[in-house]
Specification:
about 230 residues, single chain
């Protein structure tokens, strides 16, 4: 199993996310630097919203954001260069693929389905080291992402952490943070995989972690309208 992050790894979601934040700003009258927000995608929604709204308003803003997201952000999503080829490179070698994202499960599934990404498993609502729960459950030996939090995810899963410098962090920053390898673009992934064959994870899958993550896991994405559990 090879795991991939979603935002700015497989999917360019900046335009749609920016449009949702712009709508929130218009509705509330609160200034939100949309360009800044979309330059640092990765952490959970609540973390970013806390930069613009007081704690007492966060729950309402999270709820409103998630009301807006399916109709505004999902249709504006596009695949990152090399995304489909990366997935197919794994499949061509008999491997399986999964998406693990900090985005809530419903919108992670909706984005993957809208883009038609042929992955086997989708898991939303996990961030940084907690992504290791789903990665370990499915025996992922490799996790690919654009954020230092994705390096933490790979470490937590005992997987190889392959960073791509396609998000808000440079190759140098990702390498210094501890990524096992860094690519400038996902388009280089098939060649990298050819030189680094699929293998077993460093930490075997655990039944305990499977129990912890299965409630919000969608397997074999083949149909629309799968909702967050």
């Amino acid at each position: 199993m090879v795991g991939f992050d979603l935002d700015m790894t497989l999917a360019d979601t900046r335009a749609g996310i920016g449009a949702v934040y712009a709508r929130l700003a218009a509705e509330t009258g609160v200034f939100i630097d949309v360009e800044l927000v979309t330059s640092r995608l990765g952490p959970p929604l609540e973390v970013e919203l806390a930069n613009w709204f007081p704690a007492g308003e966060l729950d309402a803003m999270v709820a409103r954001y998630r009301e807006l997201y399916p109709g505004i952000a999902v249709p504006a999503s596009v695949t990152m260069p090399g995304a489909r080829d990366a997935i197919e490179a794994v499949r061509a070698r008999g491997g399986r693929t999964m998406v693990v994202s900090a985005k809530n499960h419903r919108d992670t599934v909706a984005t993957v389905e809208f883009l038609g990404l042929p992955v086997d498993v989708v898991r939303g609502g996990l961030w940084a080291a907690r992504k290791g729960i789903a990665l370990r459950e499915h025996g992922a030996w490799l996790y690919v992402g654009d954020h230092p939090g994705d390096v933490d995810a790979a470490r937590a899963a005992g997987a190889v952490g392959l960073a791509v410098a396609t998000g808000g962090y440079s190759a140098e920053v990702l390498r210094d943070y501890g990524a096992d390898a860094v690519l400038s673009e996902l388009t280089a992934f098939p060649s990298w995989l050819r030189d680094n064959p699929i293998r077993s994870p460093r930490i075997p899958p655990s039944a305990a972690t499977a129990t912890a993550s299965s409630a919000n896991t969608t397997t074999r994405i083949t149909r629309p309208n799968v909702i967050d559990q």
